[in-house]
Amino acid sequence: MAITSVERFYKHWSISKPCIALALFCVFQWGCAPKNSSSWDEEKGLQGMISLSGAFALYPLVVLWSEEFKAIHPDVRFNISAGGAGKGIADALNGMVDIGLVSRDVHQQEYDQGAYVIHVAKDAVVGTMSSQNPNLSAIQQRGIKQEEFKRIFIDGDISKWNQIESSFSPDDLYAYVRSDAAGAAETWAAYLGKSQEDLKGVGIFGDPGIVQAIQKNPFAVGFSNINYVYDLKTRQQNPGIRVVPIDLNNDGVIGPDENFYNSIDSLTQAVAQGRFPSPPSRSLSFLLKGKPRDVVVTEFIKFVLTQESQSILLENGYIPLHEEWLITERAKLN
Predict the structure, then answer these.
(1) Cα–Cα dist 56/273, whole Å
(2) Stretch 105-131: mean pLDDT, rounded?
(3) Helices 206-216 and 5-13 meet at what angle, rounded to 10?
(4) What is the DSSP string of 282-321?
(5) Single pTM value for the model
């Protein structure tokens, strides 16, 4: 199997700070520059550039799709950046990019500004904790109830692990949330009946950042997109981090029907079958300002909505859209 897009992202993320600053400057300059006109040439085929910005959850998948599209249309260029769903939406509505990458529900005020949404995949957000947490084994057997997650992330009245369960250790509990306007945070908050602004905890930027923080702190709890929690080669949870199972029926035990976290394949199957709740499972979408008119942008979206392009999703930790849903999304391009 080829190197996964998540691995590529981690490699990009680990470059030096000066390089990051230069890269961000170049992306900003490129995003502000007038868009090259797209065209079709009988000899060269499609020509032009597509710019995309937004959700960390969708970024690795779009990198894969762009590489496959370029293999067919080598004269099409891509400018892709991850900065959170909120940034992607703002960039698209402000004309900075062609497509915003979105991992949360779109708000009415965004539709009022011309947002045009095309769903392209599904995935999920999961609660996370360190593999070194002294309560790990007990939590994997017991799970955490939705109301207990709410007390941690919304009410903020749980500051020690034994306030969840008296048999847990008396260590301090640290809640980590996203500092950027993130679809993962909005989705996790929606699961708890609130919005991202209501989440309480230490703010950390980006999925890679929050995963690394959880790995380093044995007493922390957070949440992440599943593609940053599981290793796409081994299909198991990444070293140093574990999913916090949800006690769906509130009986204090993770029964067989709730125990689907051991591999990314069992989790994505649970999402596809509706056994994992929505939220925190969610749709991943492209957001444009108005119906797409640019020929290159339109052809790329059509490519994404083919069965062939959807077929790579499961091996990369996403859930493909079923055929009826694909037909609905394709109709938005007519």
Answers:
(1) 24
(2) 97
(3) 80
(4) EEEEEEEESS---HHHHHHHHHHTSHHHHTTTGGGT-BPP
(5) 0.86
